[in-house]
Every structure is written in structure tokens, then in C-alpha cells.
Amino acid sequence: PREGIAAVCTSIVDIDKNINRAIALGLLEVSPDSSLRVPRILSLKLPEDSEGLHRQAAEFLYRLWWEEAEYSTEEQGLEIHRLAMLGKVEKISVEMAAVLTRRWKDQSRFREAVKTCEETLAVFPDYRIFHSLARSQAELGETDAAKKYYQQALDECPPADEIVKAAILHNLAGIYVNQGEVAKAITFYEECLELDEKIGNLPGKAATLHQLAGIYARQGEVAKAIAFYEQSLEIEEKIGDVQGKAATLHNLAGIYANQGDVEKAIAFYEQSLEIEEKIGNVQGKAATLHQLAIIYANQGDVDKAIALYEKSLELTEKIGDVQGKAANLHQLAGIYANQGEVGKAIALYEQSLDLQEKMGDVQGKAATFVMLGQLLAAQGDFDQALNYLQQSLEILPHLQSPDAEIVRRIIADVQQMAGD
């Protein structure tokens, strides 16, 4: 903005006259909104106090484009962050990095978020940026790094910042869920829920109720899971959290699908999908397409199921969603196994297993081990089949999963087959 140049170039006499001369000479151009731009970068030597100039520019634009503006564009946010970093303005650098990376995470732009977090942390190691970095790393399947940075964020979070502390606890709990440490995850979620209720953080409370519901659903406590999801949905509708609402509808649909209420499940998934497409939530859309594919596969509409899985797989690869990609590969493998294409099925299960091991997704590994074990047993490779099945059985009790007993029966059957 013209007034921004004047604010930074305080040592230049008669600044307005000089700006007009620069415009006349073509060194500056006037944009439709009356702001000024440089049409060509000149190789000029900056004054010795270039850090001070950058600081002045960052502070001015932060006030004009951020504090006093009703809406700020991504480009403005990036420019404020760039100038603040060069001017060593910690408060502005950290705030803008946190805002930008949170926005990108919600848009499934995980790699951009990681890059900006790392650049910011190299100068300002702030707990909020450690938290943002961990969130995007978790989505990219870098589970160990995410866990490390979540813990670092938690350790450095000041006691007074209860909102961020609650968010860190919530996200760290999610890592423990994926790694099969369910009891520890519940402890973190309950601590988070207590904080959310204390500070009146309704979005945080809704998200935590949602995650606890997911745990109870996986443990077979369906009534408790539905009650928690419905509490979460009530809050999301109250506060206008459409992204949270889409996720809760998605998971309630999953419960109804498991109970055999297919029509209700499809209706809930389609409501969720409509919201996800409206808000541009690529990751959520991929997950919902995946679940719809499962329903159509169970109904025998294999071609439609494969088309939906492949569309979901394409989206997960596009955004680098490793967990979603692993899940799609796993389900496609199941379809090919049912069609008798055992070699193709085993190859897809092995690809899925590689990704699950990379993420530390023990729940996913347990499911894939079972499927590989049964396929290999059918082909007569009993030793490898029992090896996979035993690895699954070692995981499931830690997850408090009711499937452990099913796997025990499968192992007994395979041992019988091997003996025969």
C-alpha cells in the first residue's frame, strides 16, 4: 500500500513526490486497488539496517492487513510472515505461521504446512509451531516425528495457554490411539475434555467427544459411542462447525452400517459428502468415498465399489494422506481376493502393510496380517500364514478388540489344515 511505503521510508524527504516520480518513470505501477507494485526487481543494495526496514514493514502490514482488516488473503499472510521473519519479529512470525499452517492443514496442504513450520522453528522455536508441525506430519504418516513434536509442544506450553494445551493433548491422544495404546489415549482425551469444559471451549469439547466415541465404537460399546457422537453433533450444529459435523455424520454412518441399517448409513454418508465437497475438504471426501465403497462392496455391487475406492485412492495420493491410501489398498485387496485374484490381492495387502508399518498404525497392521494369513493359508503356505496371524493376535488384546477371539479360531483352523 502507498501508505506502507511512506511508513517505511521515513528518511526520504517529500516521499509522496518521489513516489509519483517513480510511477512516472515506470519504477512503480498502480494496481486497480490503488496499491503500488514493483514491475521489475532491481539489484539495489539494501541499507545496513535492512532488518529494521523489514521489521517496520512487517509491523505496518500486520496492523493494516491483519488487525484492522475484516478479511486477509493468503498472499497477504505470506508477505507479513516473510517480512516478519526477515525483521526478526517473533510475535508476528509465530502468529502468522500458526494461522497459515492451520489453514493449509484443513485444506490438506500438509507439505506446505511442514515447510513453513520448519522455516519458522529454525528462528523461533515456539510451542504453537511445534504443534502445527506435528499435526501435518501425523497426516503425512510421519508418526514418530509427530509424536516427538507434540510432546515438545506439550512440555513447552505455558500453563496459562489452556486452549492450546487442550488441543495438544487431543492430538497426542490420537497418536496413541493409532499406536494401540488405548488406555493412554483415553487418559489424554479425558484430561483434554476436562480442560475444554473448564474454559468453555465448545469446538474442542465436540472434537474430543467425537474421538472418545470412536474408541468406544471400536471396543464394541456401540450405545456409548452413539451417545458421544450425538453430543458432539449437537455442539457442532450449535456452533456452526460444518467440518466437524461432516466427520460426525460420517462416523455415525459407520455405526449404522455395522448394525446393518444400510439405508440410514448411506443417507448419513451422503450428507457428510455434500458438506465435504462444499468446504473443499479433500481428505474427508476421500474417507467418505472409501466408506461408501465398503457398503456397495457388501451389497455385491463390485464395479461401483472399485470405482469409489480408486477415486478415494487418487485423492489420498494427491494430498499425501498415507493412512487413507493404506486403507484403500487394504479394501481393494479384499475385493480382488473375493474375485479369486489372489496374487493381486496379496500384492495390495503388502503395499498397505508397508504404509501401516511406516505410520506405526498397529490397528491397521492387525487387520492386514489377518487377511494375508488367511490368503496364504489357502495357498498352502501355512508357516507364513501362522506367522502373520500370530502377529495380529499379539496386537489385538492391547487394543481391547473383540476380534482377538476370532483370530484365535482362525489360527486353530489353519493349524488343523497344516496338520491334515
> What's the β-strand tally?
2
C-alpha geometry:
elongated
Give me the number of helical elements: 21
Kindly state the mean pLDDT as a whole number? 92
User: Helix share of residues?
Assistant: over 70%
Biggest β-sheet: strands ordered side by side in the sheet: 1-2
The secondary structure category is mainly alpha
The rounded distance between the terminal residues' Cα atoms is 83 Å
Largest sheet, in brief, is: 2 strands, antiparallel
Over all CA atoms, what is the radius of gyration? Answer: 26 Å
Give the percentage of residues in beta strands: under 5%
Structure overview:
The protein has 420 residues and is mostly helical. It is built from 21 helices and two strands. The chain has a two-stranded antiparallel sheet with strand order 1-2. A hairpin with a 5-residue loop joins strand 1 and strand 2. The termini are far apart. The mean pLDDT is 92.
What keywords describe this structure?
420 residues, mainly alpha, two-stranded antiparallel sheet, 21 helices, elongated
Summarize the entry for a quick read:
With 420 residues, the chain is mainly alpha-helical. The chain is 78% helix and 1% strand.
Question: How are the elements arranged and paired?
Answer:
Blueprint (H helix, E strand, L loop, with lengths): L1 H7 L6 H11 L3 E2 L5 E2 L12 H18 L6 H13 L3 H17 L3 H12 L5 H13 L3 H14 L5 H17 L3 H18 L2 H17 L3 H18 L2 H17 L3 H18 L2 H17 L3 H18 L2 H17 L3 H18 L2 H17 L3 H14 L7 H17 L1
Antiparallel strand pairs: 1-2
